[in-house]
């Protein structure tokens, strides 16, 4: 309490005593014990009221010391085991966290990382991917606005994510502690193999192979691609001390329809420490038909190029660009994309109706909406000549096909003419429109089906900005291109409606996410979120059976089958209430990316240390690392004086006490006839 508060309390005692004395003793001849007791009660009441007015505050000061964080991130991927460094990593980690001087100076934070970063002080080294980019991103958000050092115990071999060298905050020093044998061994490696998932029957498909050599002598290597026991391609490759890499481009024949498995190998007459990285399996699905999509437009617009690129990311699609008067027959066209149709499209609409060709209609400021009203009856347009920007709003109840919200609400607006758009009952809306966050209750992206003919409507131009925004948000066009592919897939499908629809790949690589999606529809073809879906997966070789439940998402069910070993599998998805079953198969190709390395990536880790003004240390230099951290004067503890103020007396109890004292005084006076 302050001096002023103490003086006020003393003054309160004097005032309370003076008033009590004045009422019960001043000019009163009878100084009985009752008067003394009543004076004491009155003194307490007045003093309590004055204390309530003064409200004395107690101030407590507490000294708090904030230490600088020291993040220790341990590589938990299986490459640590492959390099026979798992015991050494645990030993180095224990030596760091148990150091009393480090504990005194720093607040030690322990993490493990493989595909992602998470707090941990136990490591099993079973991670299937290494992502140092995730370490940079997560540590930056965990210790926001702080200057702190980071020790990374790793081999530096990243298998996924962005290049980590320039992803860490340059203000925070990184100290890589390199594990693994840095001795250079003779090693031949298939570093990367690029091939499309699909090829077309009776064509040839390209395979691009990147080979890498580690050693200091000239050597000759044999490269081959085999299908079963048949050698499809064989080439000689020469390496030397100055030529460490080679790139091969080969063409393979697609002479069989279906899933074709190949194996690429590189070998020499020298025995290698790691032969696992000498081979790589890959698969190609050979299909006997390529669907053609025609984009019809009488104008030039960036939307057309963006749409073409998105559609052709699926190798099964071929896009042709034509003018309205250039198409007379639609025999070879699977889907018509009609961009901003006007009266010049009359012949196209007539031919599409005769051929029952599915269409994707995209409108904009150049669309003739009166003409469009005459050509279809799914949507009715009443448009003005004024332009308007329309934002997208995702409709989670959409159920024609499984689709995720890829951030539509954050996409730039599409431009269309202002007006009202009404739909009939057979139209399903995936995206509705908003004008400056005010819902219009009109569709922006909708689908209709009439007598087996399917139509999609995108009601606005400038969708090329959507693709660009998706790339900015995800550093990839993939999510947006998959979204477009699902629209095209829906329009390309002519099969009758099924109650159980399952989406999956025919093959996966080991280490990839193996996700199977399913949708179950009731008799009205409405998505049934109360369905109970299970999946039974059987390894065709070992006959081992595993059962899983599919978990419900927004508008589909899904299951993650990560952890399955390489091999061929049959599976069946079953809806338990109706016993509806879908059966198929897939294959997991043997490939463990974490076993591709024979040495730590010292150069990359040294670049990282240099970029952040840190330093690189090796297994036998952990004491030097500790000394460096302790001697660095940038990392000082911060002392804070935390002052807390609390009332000396709880006012509620004080009021209760005052009421009790006044009540007691009244009863005593009443009893003694003083009222």
TrEMBL record:
Listed transmembrane segments: 6-24, 36-58, 651-668
Protein name: VWA domain-containing protein
Keywords: Membrane, Transmembrane, Transmembrane helix
Organism lineage string: Bacteria, Pseudomonadati, Bacteroidota, Flavobacteriia, Flavobacteriales
């Amino acid at each position: 309490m302050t001096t002023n508060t103490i003086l006020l309390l003393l003054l309160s005692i004097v005032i309370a005593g003076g008033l009590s004395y004045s009422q019960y003793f001043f000019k009163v001849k009878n100084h009985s014990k009752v008067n003394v007791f009543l004076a004491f009660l009155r003194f307490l009441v007045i003093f309590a009221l004055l204390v309530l007015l003064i409200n004395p505050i107690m101030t407590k000061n507490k000294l708090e010391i904030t230490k600088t964080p020291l993040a220790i991130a341990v590589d938990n991927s299986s490459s640590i085991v492959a390099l026979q460094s798992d015991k050494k990593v645990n030993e180095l980690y224990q030596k760091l966290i148990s150091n009393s001087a480090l504990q005194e100076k720093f607040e030690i934070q322990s993490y493990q990382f493989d595909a992602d970063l998470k707090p941990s002080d136990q490591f099993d080294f079973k991670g299937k991917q290494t992502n140092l980019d995730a370490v940079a991103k997560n540590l930056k958000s965990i210790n926001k606005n702080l200057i702190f050092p980071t020790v990374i115990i790793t081999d530096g071999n990243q298998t996924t994510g962005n290049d980590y060298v320039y992803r860490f905050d340059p203000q925070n020093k990184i100290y890589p502690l390199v594990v693994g044998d840095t001795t250079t061994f003779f090693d031949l490696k298939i570093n990367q193999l690029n091939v499309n998932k699909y090829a077309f029957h009776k064509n040839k498909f390209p395979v691009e192979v990147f080979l890498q050599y580690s050693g200091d002598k000239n050597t000759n290597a044999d490269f081959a691609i085999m299908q079963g026991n048949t050698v499809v391609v064989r080439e000689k490759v020469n390496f030397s001390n100055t030529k460490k890499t080679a790139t091969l481009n080969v063409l393979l024949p697609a002479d069989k329809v279906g899933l074709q498995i190949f194996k690429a190998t590189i070998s020499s007459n020298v025995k290698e420490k790691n032969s696992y990285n000498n081979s790589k399996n890959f698969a190609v699905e050979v299909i006997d038909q390529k669907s053609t999509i025609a984009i019809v437009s009488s104008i030039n617009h960036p939307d057309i190029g963006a749409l073409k690129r998105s559609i052709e990311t699926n190798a099964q699609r071929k896009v042709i660009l034509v003018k309205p008067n250039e198409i007379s027959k639609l025999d070879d066209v699977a889907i018509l994309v009609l961009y901003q149709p006007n009266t010049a499209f009359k012949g196209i609409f007539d031919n599409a109706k005769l051929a029952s060709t599915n269409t994707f209609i995209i409108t904009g400021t150049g669309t003739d909406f009166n003409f469009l009203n005459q050509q279809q009856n799914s949507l009715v347009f009443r448009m003005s000549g004024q332009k308007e920007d329309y934002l997208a709003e995702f409709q989670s109840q959409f159920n024609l096909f499984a689709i995720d919200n890829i951030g539509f609400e954050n996409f730039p607006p599409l431009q269309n003419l202002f007006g009202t758009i009404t739909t009939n009952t057979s139209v399903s809306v995936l995206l509705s429109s908003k004008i400056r966050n005010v819902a219009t209750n009109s569709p922006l992206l909708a689908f209709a089906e009439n007598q087996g003919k399917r139509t999609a409507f995108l009601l606005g131009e400038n969708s090329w900005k959507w693709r660009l925004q998706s790339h900015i948000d995800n550093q990839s066009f993939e999510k947006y291109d998959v979204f477009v592919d699902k629209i095209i897939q829906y329009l390309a499908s002519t099969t009758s409606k099924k109650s159980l629809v399952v989406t999956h790949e025919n093959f996966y690589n080991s280490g990839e996410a193996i996700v199977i999606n399913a949708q179950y529809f009731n008799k009205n073809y409405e998505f049934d979120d109360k369905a109970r879906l299970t999946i039974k997966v059987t390894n065709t070789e070992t006959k081992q059976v595993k059962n899983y439940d599919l978990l419900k998402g927004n508008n589909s069910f899904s299951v993650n089958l990560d952890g399955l070993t390489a091999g061929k599998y049959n599976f069946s998805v079953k809806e338990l209430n109706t016993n509806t079953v879908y059966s198929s198969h897939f294959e997991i190709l043997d490939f463990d990316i974490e076993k591709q390395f024979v040495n730590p990536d010292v150069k990359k880790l040294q670049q990282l240390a240099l970029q952040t003004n840190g330093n690189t240390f090796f297994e036998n230099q952990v004491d030097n690392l500790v000394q460096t951290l302790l001697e660095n004067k940038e990392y000082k503890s911060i002392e804070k004086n935390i002052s807390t103020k609390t009332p000396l007396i709880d006012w509620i109890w004080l009021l209760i006490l005052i009421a009790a004292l006044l009540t007691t005084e009244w009863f005593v006076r009443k009893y003694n006839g003083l009222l």
